[in-house]
Amino acid sequence: MKYFSTLQRSQCTRFFCIGFVGLLILAGCSTLKPPQIARFEATPTTIQKGESSTLQWSIENTEQTRISISGIGAIAPGVQSSRISPDETTTYTLQVERDGKMLAERTATVNVVQPPQIVEFEAQPASIKQGETSTLRWTVRNDKGVKISIKGVGTIPENSNSVRVTPDQTTSFTLQVERDNKVIAEKSVSVSVAPAYKPPVYG
């Protein structure tokens, strides 16, 4: 049986301790906590087409990670918000990757309200005689939550798409569509009025 001297035993013990401590240090350095998305939201969540919303997020344990948002792309380190102006309702996905592996994700949706559009606005007939009647007809698309009015007529009841008018003279009628007290769309038509026939009076 081979025996180690006191010096050899001391050296072995020292090398063992150094190696063990080194392994602990390496193990500690290589162990990273998984990233966690604490918050990902859009403010405001509903916008009119053409307006903007802001995506904001907070992520913990982002060491050695790659952060990206669908439709936007990679996010630079330290950035925690992004302004967006989608043309239609869109769901954004925030993803956090490490070493090519997706470890966390969360979604936020921005609802886009399409602006109202006047598809048609016409007078039938467009020419009348004094005392006769014309009918104004219209079609408005994306009219949810809007107020429709016609200058010279007034506010139009909900779900109505026509009104009869009897102007005394040639008149231009303007259809206006409002949302949140703001005129979003308008269109005009004219009703031409000719003098009524008067039979000649013989003296």
Report on the architecture of this protein.
This protein is mainly β and 203 residues long. The protein folds into 2 domains: 36-113, Sandwich (Immunoglobulin-like), CATH 2.60.40.10; 117-194, Immunoglobulin-like, CATH 2.60.40. The chain contains 1 helix and 16 strands. The protein has one helix at residues 6-30, and strands at 36-43, 46-48, 53-60, 66-69, 73-75, 81-84, 90-98, 101-113, 117-124, 127-129, 134-141, 147-150, 154-155, 162-165, 171-179, 182-194. A 5-stranded mixed sheet has the order 2-8-7-4-5, with no helix packed on it. The protein has a 5-stranded mixed sheet with strand order 10-16-15-12-13, with no helix packed on it. The chain has a 3-stranded antiparallel sheet with strand order 1-3-6, with no helix packed on it. Strand 15 and strand 16 form a beta hairpin. The longest helix is centred in the N-terminal third of the chain and has 25 residues, at 6-30. The protein is rod-shaped, with a radius of gyration of 37 Å. The mean pLDDT is 88.
